[in-house]
């Protein structure tokens, strides 16, 4: 099918019953380059959590 890819666009492909989500990284007249990394790859992630219990031997 005719597609009009745009840099940053997320697209989904299926191969061997596995779905892949890719990001259009570059578009030229004769090629499209995709980035298959997770969207959060290379980002700094901060998590906030609540520790409910510590199991194990007490001192």
Summarize this structure briefly.
This protein has strands spanning 10-15, 18-27, 32-35. The chain has 59 residues and is mainly beta. The protein has a domain at 1-39: Thrombin, subunit H.
Could you explain the architecture of this structure?
Belongs to the FKBP-type PPIase family. It comes from Methanothrix harundinacea. Keywords: Chaperone, Cytoplasm, Isomerase, Rotamase. It is found in: Cytoplasm. Its main location: cytoplasm. This protein is an all-beta fold and 59 residues long. The protein has a domain at 1-39: Thrombin, subunit H, CATH 2.40.10. 0% of the residues lie in helices and 34% in strands. The chain is built from no helices and three strands. The chain has a three-stranded antiparallel beta sheet, with no helix packed on it. The chain is elongated, with a radius of gyration of 20 Å. The relative contact order is 0.18.
CATH topology of the domain at 1-39: Thrombin, subunit H
Principal-axis shape equals elongated
Q: Into which percent range does the helicity of residues fall?
A: under 10%
Order of helices and strands: EEE
Catalytic activity: [protein]-peptidylproline (omega=180) = [protein]-peptidylproline (omega=0)
Family: Belongs to the FKBP-type PPIase family.
Organism: Methanothrix harundinacea
Protein name: peptidylprolyl isomerase
Key attributes of the depicted protein:
mainly beta; single chain; three-stranded antiparallel beta sheet; 59 residues
Topology:
Elements: E1 10-15, E2 18-27, E3 32-35
Antiparallel strand pairs: 1-2, 2-3
């Amino acid at each position: 099918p005719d597609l009009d890819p745009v840099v940053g666009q997320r697209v989904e492909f299926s191969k061997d019953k596995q779905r892949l989500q890719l990001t259009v990284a570059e578009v030229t007249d004769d090629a499209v380059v995709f980035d298959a990394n997770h969207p959060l790859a290379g980002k700094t992630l901060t998590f906030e959590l609540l520790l409910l219990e510590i199991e194990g031997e007490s001192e």
